[in-house]
Amino acid sequence: MNIIVNSIFVTDQAKALSFYTEKLGFVKKEDEPLGKHRWLTLVSPDEQGGTELLLEPDEHPAAKDYQKRIFAEGIPATMFGVADIHEEYKQLLEKGVEFTMTPTKMGAVTIAVLDDTCGNLIQIIQK
C-alpha cells in the first residue's frame, strides 16, 4: 500500500495554487473541473511521480471548523521536508512568506512554521 494523495483544506483554491507553486515551488499535476471547484493536485518538482497534495476546498462546515481550530491552536496542517531549513527559510522570507516559528532545533530535527495564506499553518522540517 502507498500514499498517493494527501489533502489539505484551503479557503481559496486559486490563491492556494498560486502560493504553493510560486512561493513554495510545487508543480501543478492535475487540474480537473468538479462543478464550482477543481480536483487540483500538486507534486514536488523533484518527485513528479510521487505523492500528490490535493488542495481541497474547505466548504464543508466540519472542514471549516477543523481548519480554524487547528490554526488557532498553532497546529500545522501538514509537514514538508527540506534539505537545508535555514536556506529554505531565507528564500521563503525573500518571497514574502510569513512564519509563525523561525527555524528551531527540536532534538534530532529542526522545524519552522509558515502561514500558507489559505487558512493553514505548514511545518517545514529538516531531519
UniProtKB/TrEMBL annotation:
The keyword Cell membrane does not apply. The keyword Transferase does not apply. Keywords: Dioxygenase, Oxidoreductase. GO terms for molecular function: dioxygenase activity. Gene3D superfamilies: 2,3-Dihydroxybiphenyl 1,2-Dioxygenase, domain 1. Pfam families: Glyoxalase. InterPro entries: Glyas_Bleomycin-R_OHBP_Dase, Glyas_Fos-R_dOase_dom, VOC_core. It comes from the Bacteria. Residues 1-127 form the VOC domain. Coiled coil: none annotated. This is Catechol 2,3-dioxygenase. The lineage of its organism: Bacteria, Bacillati, Bacillota, Bacilli, Bacillales.
